[in-house]
């Protein structure tokens, strides 16, 4: 029993020792208390056990120290050696540190100098629109500072780049100028509107002061807009200054004037719908006024960028354009609404003129009356007013009305019927001029017999318009004939004719008949000239068709068909489509064709060759060159189509005769060439 208790005690003490070894010092108290609270005398045995454990640990520590002693001795020896080297290193480090500090100070000084240089060089760059300051700085660098340090490579590079920087500044300033030009083009109507309000109808201010105040007022009115002031002239001043400094002012002046002249032409060009509303006219005039307000400001704010002569040149160009625009639109509306038909009266009467004649007459009278009202404020004598009215009316007739008539006649939609009516209208307008002169006499009370008065030039105005319309009639008539000719579709190698005229030609003749019926209202000479011109053009076109170089072969059957068509042309000419022709005058338009076709139809070469050059020759109008060309075309088809079979039945040598005729014609032509 006692032995078992002793064993338990030893085991418990071993546990306590292990716990003491592994437990934090602060927690040892409860463990030790358990030793004293246990069996009596147990603490004595625990102390013995503890002493034994301590001795055991001491032995372990001694063994470990003995094991690591030699390594410790070696480490101490190494430290003693390093100490000497460390003392040497400290001495060397102090010496080198002084040198390093000096180098750091030098580098930092260089960095500060470089930063200062960069800061100064930034002033040379064209940033923030400080172009003038940049140019002055570059000038100082180039002339003062760079020569002092020219041995450095970066200075050489800098000197090489200065011209490029100057060009860059020129380009940027020119870009600003282009933006300015676009801006004033965009806002010219607003500038003009403000100027018109500022000056008013009475012209209260001088031209320069008005321009300055207009621009100031417009700028104030537009202050709240995103774009800022409506007209900012600083880009002009800046660009002019820069180009002047760089010695290239003339280039800038030429560019500015050229661009403004282009803009003037754009401003003076009205929109197509301008004349339809009063607002359209107002906007047109505002743009023009705005343009010249800006130019007036530039004229007085700069020295020589624009000159008075240049401004006057622009104004004269504008004046002529404005007058032309107003004249064009003041009477043209009447022509656009005209139906170009005689004015109907109580049946069966008709006035030969169309509705535009009385409307034009009324417009001219209203113009004369308005001119009278205007002249009354000028405090002139009756004679002077009368002269002024007549001259103004002459301008209206000779420029405005004449120009409108000329433009009307050339319009594509004006056909033959309209042209005939225009000729009739101008005849009546010409006759109406004497009534206009009487009207001026009545309102001015100045008798033409009392003083030498200016006559109205209506006679020449309307005569010129008539001649232009007549010429256009001839041209359009010929164009219409060409359209029919293009429809011709001959079978050039046909064996025999159809026995009737071609359809296209009959349609053409019907068209000519109906057209010349409309010409009955024209003066006789005009109708006869148009008819003769049409017949000659038709004859020439038909002959050209035969002689076309693309046409290589023609059969006798095709010649016979062609002859049937020419016969219809001759019948038309002899039917007197327009009265007044003497005898067969109109038929003579086809005489060249008739003689040529007769020569080939009859095959009368012996007569032609024998009588050639004689005034009484039956084929006087047949040119040997034309005859040869047609004969060559027919010769090429003789073998294929048996064209001359009827002749060969009578005479097998007819083919040889053709060859003989060809040779004789060529000989005749060569003789003519030598003779000429």
UniProtKB/TrEMBL annotation:
Residues 49-89, 129-196 form the Exocyst complex component EXOC6/Sec15 N-terminal domain. InterPro entries: EXOC6/Sec15, EXOC6/Sec15_C, EXOC6/Sec15_C_dom1, EXOC6_Sec15_N, EXOC6PINT-1/Sec15/Tip20_C_dom2. Keywords: Exocytosis, Transport. One of its GO terms (cellular component) is membrane. GO terms for biological process: Golgi to plasma membrane transport; intracellular protein transport; vesicle tethering involved in exocytosis. Residues 330-633 form the Exocyst complex subunit EXOC6/Sec15 C-terminal domain. Component of the exocyst complex involved in the docking of exocytic vesicles with fusion sites on the plasma membrane. Belongs to the SEC15 family. This is Exocyst complex component. The lineage of its organism: Eukaryota, Metazoa, Chordata, Craniata, Vertebrata. The gene is exoc6.
